Amino acid sequence: MKTLDISNDTTEFEVSAQFSSNGQISESCTREICRLVDTAGFAVVNDLLDSSEADHGLAMMRQHLEDPNREKGDFASQTDMRYGRRDFCPLPSNPDVLSYAATLAQRLQPAIQEYCGVTRKVLEISTMTSYRGASHQYIHRDPDGVLCLFAAVDDVTSEQGGTVFVPGTHKFSGADMMFDGRADFLSRLYQAACNYSILGHNLRTLWSMRKKGTDTLRPGEWKDRVFSTRYDNHQPNIFRFLLGKNSVFSFSPRTLWQIRQHRKTLARYFRTVQTAPRKGTVILYRSDMLHAGPDNRTDRPRYFFGMSIARDIVFEQQWREGYSSHSTLLENPQNFGDLLSYPTESFKPGMEQNHAA
Ligand SMILES: [Fe+2]
C-alpha cells in the first residue's frame, strides 16, 4: 500500500510451539504466548499443527465450501461475499469440525485458559477464505472480551492477505492511560489515518480491475462496491463514507486536520504489521485490538480456520450480531470446557516427534 506503512516482519510476535509430554504446549511456550497476547494483543504460534493436520483442516474446509446449501457468514465484507470475493461461513457442529476445534483447544489449553474459563462460550467456528479482488477491510476492532484464533491450514503470503495487526491497541483495565493518557484519542486517530489509506488503496485496486474489463469485475460489482448505500462497512462505498453511515470509518475534515497535527506522535506510538503465517501456524489475538483482513492480490485462495471463545459472559444479542455462529452451534452451544473433553482424532497425549518438549 502506497501510503500506509506496513511491516512484514513479525519475528518479535512469533513463538515456536513446544510441547509437553501430555501433548499440550509447554509451560515456557505458554508463558511466551501469554506475554505476547498481553503486551501486543496477539501471538503467532508457529508449527502448532503438523503438515498432515493442516491438510486435514484444509480438506474439511474445502469439502464444506463445495456444499451449495452451506450457511453463509454475515460478517465483513457482505458485498465481497455476494460477488464471490470472500467465502466466510460458519462450520457445522459435526464430529469432524468439533474434533478439529477440540484439537486446537486442547493443545493450546494452558494459554487459552489464562483468558477463557471452562464455562465460556464458543461463539463461532468458521472458515475464512478470500479470493483475488477481495476488498482490504478497514482497520477495526471486533466486539470486546473475546479470544480469537486463526489457524493457517495452508501457507499464507502477505499478498494473499495475511491479517494485519496494530500491536498494543487492545483493551484492558487502565489501557486508556497509555500513550501519555491519550490512548483512546490517538488510537482512533491512527485507525482513521490507516483507513484513509485503505480507502485510497481499495479505490485504486477497483479502478485498475475496471480498466482490465469484465474478466476481473463482475456485472454490477463496480456500482455495488463504490456507489451503493447498502450496508457494508468494508467497501469504498463513498456515499456511506461521506454520509457518515460507515460505523468503522467516516469522513471528517477535523480528523484529517488532527492526523496531520499529530502525525509524528502517531508514528512514534503506533505501527502496523502484516502476518504471513506458514501452514500449521496459529494466531491468537484479543478481539478488541485494531486489526484487518487485507485483500488477496493473488490467484491462490487464502484459507483460515477460525474460532472465537468468549473471555467473559456475552449478551446474547451481541453474540448474534458480532459473530456468525452455525445454526447447529446455536442449537447445541459448546463452551471451552466441552472442547477440552471432546474426543479428538489427531490429538494424542504423549505424542513425540516434533511435538515433544
Ligand atoms: Fe475482525
Please tell me about this protein's structure.
This protein has 357 residues and is α+β, with helices and mostly antiparallel strands. It has a single domain (6-181, 270-355), classed as Jelly Rolls (Sandwich). It has 14 helices and 11 strands. The strands form 2 sheets. It has a 7-stranded mixed β-sheet. Strands 1-8-7-10 form a 4-stranded mixed β-sheet, with no helix packed on it. Helix 1 (27-39) links the parallel strand 2 (14-16) and strand 3. The longest helix has 30 residues, at 183-212. Residues 140, 142, 291 line the site of fe (ii) ion (FE2).
* Largest sheet: number of strands, sense, barrel closure: 7 strands, mixed
Please provide the ordered H/E string of secondary-structure elements: EEHEHHEHHEEEHHHHHHEEEEHHH
Mean pLDDT: 92
> Low-confidence stretches at least 5 residues in length (pLDDT < 50)?
349-357
